[in-house]
Structures are given as C-alpha cells and as structure tokens.
Amino acid sequence: MKDHKIKIGITQGDINGISYEVILKTLMDQRIYEICTPILYGSPKVVAYHRKALNLGSFNLNMIRNADEANSKRANLINCLDDNIRVELGKSTPQAGEASLLSLKAAVKDLKDKKIDALITGPINKSNIQSEQFKFPGHTEYLKEEFGGEALMILVSEVVKVAVVTGHVPLSKVPSLITVDNILSKLRILNQSMIVDFAINRPNIAVLSLNPHAGDEGLIGREEIDIIIPAIEKAKQAGIMTLGPYPADGFFGSSNFKKFDAVLAMYHDQGLAPFKALVFEDGINYTAGLPIIRTSPAHGTAYELVGKDLASESSFRKALYLACDIYKNRNDYKRLTANPMKNVDTSNV
Q1: Tens digits of residue pLDDT in 250-301
Q2: Among the CATH numbers 3.40.30.10, 3.40.50.1000, 3.40.1440.10, 3.40.718.10, which is that of 1-149+290-349?
Q3: Start-end ranges of CATH 3.40.718.10 in the chain?
Q4: How far is CA 155 from CA 190, 280, 298, in A?
Q5: Which of the four pLDDT bands, split at 50, 70 and 90, describes residue 65?
Q6: Angle at alpha carbon of residue 30, lines to 25 and 32, rounded to 5°
Q7: 150-285 fold
Q8: Is the peptide bond preceding residue 245 cis, with omega within 30 degrees of 0?
Q9: Do residues 50 and 335 make contact, with C-beta atoms less than 8 angstroms apart?
Q10: What is the largest CA-CA distance in the chain?
Q11: Phi/psi of residue 64, each to 5°?
C-alpha cells in the first residue's frame, strides 16, 4: 500500500508579525514536499504583500477551496480572509487579531474533520486576538478546550526538552498550583509523550525545584520536602524514571540537563528562559497530551524584525519536521502495540 502523504495545516498567525516571513521562507525549500503536503490557512493578498516586502520573487502558492484539493507537490493556500484585510507591518491591530482567529478556527475545523493530519501555528499576538470567541492565554489552552485532553507545553530541541507544570499563569499564582497531583499528572503526560511521540524507550526525566537551592532543606521553602519529592516518589512507583528536585541555576549552568531525555520545570520562565538562551533559533513549542498534533516555532511576532528579511525560519522549519516525525512515531507506536503477540519471536518455542 502506498504511504500516506502527511497533510500539515499551517495557521498564518499575526499578519503584521514575522509569521508570514518564516512560513514563506520555509515553504520555498523544495525538500518539504518530499515528506508532507503543507496547507496554509491565510490570504493571497497578505502573501503577496509579504512576498513583495521581502523580495521573495515569483514564489506562489496553489490556491484551493478546501484541504481535499491540496496538491501534494506544492504549497497550498486556503483563503480565510476577505479582500478588505489590511497589513500594517510591525503593528498590533484589532484586524490582525481577528485574522489570526479566523485562520486558527478554519484549521482546527479541518483537523477535527481529519482533513489534515497535524497543525503548525504561526505566532499570534495574545492581546489583539482576545475576543468573545477567544478568551485564552494562548494556543495551548484554546486547543485543550477544542480537543480535550490534558495539555502540556514542551519546548523541544536536539539539545534539551523542557516541559512546565504551570504555563501561562501569573507568577503570583504559581505556588498554589504546585501540588503533588499536578506534578504527577504532568510527569505522566511527559513520560508518555517521550515514549509515544518521540520514540524514547524508558525516558529519564529531571524535575526542577521551586525554590532557590531546592529550598536548602526547608530553610527557604518547604515545597520541595512537602510536595515535589513526594510527587517524584509516586512517579517512580508508577514506573516513571524521575530524579530531582534540582536547583534550576546549577542544573542548567553545569550542563546536567544533557544527562536527561526531558526536564520538568515548575513554572514558565524557569524552563523557557534557559531553553531559549541555549537554542533560541532552533526551539520548537509542542503541545503534548492532546489527541491531535500541534507544534509551533518557539518565538513570538517579533514586530521589530518585520519586513527586513532578518527573521530566521529555522524554528518554523523544525516545527514542521517535528510534526511529521511525531505523526510517524504515533503511527508506529499504534502499530507495534495494537497486537503485541505479533512482535514476539516464537520460532524457538
């Protein structure tokens, strides 16, 4: 049977940011079409505007009305906007927020209808996208609402993979969300994702502390003693290979992270700050724990770079490749675990 060509849906993100630049630069690489069929949910008018601003020549996308019409050898475009759309490079506008949401809703609908196999989201402005239809801190929470599951943000690179117990929440609320159940839940999702999505057998996971110096035996906080260590012990009892808690500064400063397959940080900046310092241009944001596959570049709209041909497409390109890899890994895992007896060698029985 002929192999299925993976269909990758791409949302346009903020039309005034660098999203179109990194998308178009990625899609100009002909090697992309050997492994997947990309479908951009956007606007031909906005494509033309950015293509001209970046002097990208005659690169064109194949216009289609729905994902079923996608050409497997070209980049495809489904128009989600009307002709009145206005691009204002480097500016946050209400119209740009509306355009981000229209693209996202169209792609999510096709993902639900199984017309596409995975989703890559272009960076949005989390302020201008807010509306009656979108009251979420970001893509992660929106997709959890749409598809169910227990979403876990994992920042992925070839150097390190970092997940967080608490994501887009105020720092003042973090301590109340650091509970045994929350940590254990995230460890279960992270462990399962490493096995199924990344094809890592028996992954080693490091857990970071909440307080400086891991609380110094309770001198500057008891969360490690009362919450984090008990959660780690329960994870071990469940068969999850987990060690910690490690003070974040020494853990990353000494390159101890290289000994582990994944790291669980307690809060957003504790994990993302060192991650982006290490691999900013190559980082990928992956949402684990959902029934669907969603990746995105690990950067924002970068208004200050728009139209200057300075934005690197490396993160977006890697997000596309990762989505394809996870799709294949999930299918392999499903096949290998569907009937375990098929994989048992009985020749010597």
Answers
A1: 999 998 999 999 999 999 999 999 999 999 888 999 999 999 999 999 999 9
A2: 3.40.718.10
A3: 1-149+290-349, 150-285
A4: 11, 10, 7
A5: very high
A6: 80
A7: Isopropylmalate Dehydrogenase (3.40.718)
A8: yes
A9: no
A10: 72
A11: -135, 160
